[in-house]
Amino acid sequence: MSLCRVRSRLVVVAFAAVLVVALTGCTGAKSTSGGSGGAETYKVGAILSLTGSYAALGSSEKNALELEVKRINDAGGVNGKQIELIIEDDGTDEAKAVAAASKLINQDNVIVILGATGTGQSMAARSEIDRAGIPEISMAGGTAITSNFDPLVFQTPWANTLVVPYVLQKVAADGHKNIAVISDSGGYGKDGKAVIVAAAPKSGLQIVSDQTFNPGDTDFSAQLTKVKSSGADAIVLWTAGKEGASIVRGVSDLGVKMPMYGGSGQARSEFAQGAGPAAEGFIFGTGKSLVPTNWGADSEEFKIVDGFSERYEAAYGQTPDIFAGHAFDALTILEDALKRSGGDTNAKALTSAVEGTRGLVGFGGAFTFSPTDHNGLTAEDLALYQVTAGTWTPVK
Amino acid sequence: MALSDLLQFTIAGLKSGAIYALLALGFTIVFAATGAINFAQGEFFMLGGMIGVWLTRLGLPLPVAVLGAVALTAAIGAIFEVLAIRPIADGDPLRIIMVTIGGSVLLRQIALHVFGPDEVPLAAFSPGASIMVAGAAIERQTVWIWAITALAVGALFVLYRKTMFGRAMRATALRRDAARLVGVDTGMMVTVSFALAAGLGALAGLAVAPLTQTAFDVGAGIGVKGFAAAILGGLGNPVAAVGGGLVLGLLESMTAGYINPLYKDAVALVVLLGVLFVRPQGLFGGSGREKV
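C-alpha cells for the assembled complex are given below, as produced in the milestone run.
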C-alpha cells in the first residue's frame, strides 16, 4: 500500500469517525400518554435525559411522571381536563435540550415544561422558555437554576445552596479541618463546587485539594494520587453521575484512607451497590424523604411520600429513587397551581399560581414558593445518611 | 512530584492502555479482513460487560459468566457480520463503515431496552486489597487486565502465525481473490474476523467492569479510544495496535497527572493528529505492505 493510499483511506476513516461522534446519542426517544389531544387537555411537556450519562435519573423521572399523570387522569384529571404528557429525550446534551424545548413550545404548544433532568440542560433550555414566556419546573439540583434567577423557572430538588452547607457542617462536626473536593466538570458538580468553595470557610474548613473530572471518565488515579498526598483529612465528593462509584472504589484501591462525604448524587442504590464495600461508611446529605419514616409515621409528609412509593413499587417493582420523587413534585406543584389558577393556562396566571404555592407537601418536603424564592425548600427538609451493606441508614 | 506518583500514573496508564489495546486489536482484525473500520467495536465492549452481569444475575459463577459473555458476544459479532456485512462483502469499505455505524446505534438501543438504563456492577475477578509497590497501588483487577491482554495477544499470535486457519485469514487479508482461488472460504474468514473482534471487545469490557461498572452507553466513548489507539499505533498490524493502545493510555494518564485531568482526552487527540501528520502509517506501522 503506498503512502498516498494510506492517506486517502485515513481521510475516509476520519470522516467516518466524525460521523460516529455526531451520531452518538442521536437516538431520541419520545412518548406520549394521557388525553386525546386538542384544546380539551392540558399539554404538559417534559425534557428528560433518557439516554446519556443521566439516563438512569431521567428514566426514573419518566416512570414517575407517566404513573402520576395516569393516576390524575383516571381520577378525572385536573379541573375536569385530562393532562397530556409529551416527553422529549435530551440525551444529557445541552444542545438537544434546547431543541427539545423549542419543539415542545412551537409544535406541541405545551403550557409548561417539566425538566430538564440535569442542571446544564435546564439552564440551556432557558433561552427557549424565556422567548415563549412559559413556566419551567426543573428537576435538577444545581444552584444556578434558582440563584441565577429567572421569574419563569422553578426547581423541585434540594438546591446545592441548601445541601452543601448542611453536609459541610457534618464534616466539621466530625472533627475535620482540611478537605479534598472531587467534583465533575458537568453542571451539578461544577455548581456544587462553587457552593463548597463559598461555604467551606463558614464551617471552618479549608480546601487543600480541588480535583475535577469529566463525565464519562473511567480512571481517577491522577486525581486520587494528588488527594492522597494533599494532607486532607476528609474527601467531599460532589457528582450525580455513575463515576461516583468508581471514584469511591479508587479511593479504597489506592489506599487513600479518608472518610468521604457527598450529597444527593449518592442517594442511588446503583451507587451504594456499585461501589461495594468501598462505600461502607460514606456519609451523604439529601432529603428526609429518602427514608420516609424520617418524617414520623403519622405526618402528612409520610403519607404522601409513602403513598407515592407504594404506587411506584406496584407499577415498576422497585422503590422510587429521589429523582422519581423530584418529578412527582414537579407534577404535584403543577396540579396544585392549575387548580388554584382555576384552569387559566395563560403563562402569567400559571406562573403566579406556582409562586402562590404555600406549604404544599411533596416528596422533597413542604414547598412554599414566592416571587423571589423559586426553590421553596429549607434545611428542615434534609437528613444525613450513611452507606452500609449496599444500602443506607439515617445518621442519628 | 514524588516518584511514587509517577509510578502510580504509569500503572494507571498501562491499565487503560491494555484495554485500548484489546479494542485496537479488534479494529485491526476487521480492518485486515475487510479494509474497513468496524465502528460497532465499542458496542461489543459494552455487550461483553452487560451480558456478563446478566449471566451472573442468572446465578452462574463468575468465570462461567465471563467466558459465556465472551462466547455470546462473539456469536453476536458473527451474526451481525452475516446479516449486515456479508450482503455487501465485496463492496466498498465505506459502505461497510456506514453499516457498522448504524449497527452500533442499533446494538446500543437494544441493550438499553433489554438491560435498562442503569449502570450495573460486576464482581472483581479476585477480590482483595491492592498490591502496594514502592508507594503505588496496583488494583488486583489491573493485574487481571494485563494478564488477559497478554494472553489474548499471545493466543492471536499463535492463531495467525502457527495454524492453517491463521494462514487462510492472512491470505484473505493480503489478496482476497487469490485466497479464494486457492480454496479459502473468504466469506467465512470475514465472519470469523468479526467474531474474534467482538470476543476481544467483550473481554475488554468484562475485564474493566469490576472497576468502573458498565452501562448500555459506554461503547461509543471507548470505541473512539480504541480506534485512536489503532490509528496511533498503525492500522493493520497487531503489534502496532497493542503499542498504540499502551502509548495512548500512558499519554492520557500523564496528561491527567501532570497537566489537568480535564484535558486528557483533548491532549490524546492532538497527539494523535500530530502523529498522523508526521507518520500517516502510525507510530509502529511499517510500510503498510503487510497487513497482518
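The longest helix of chain A spans residues 3-23. Chain A is about 45% helix and 20% strand. Further analysis is deferred to the final report.
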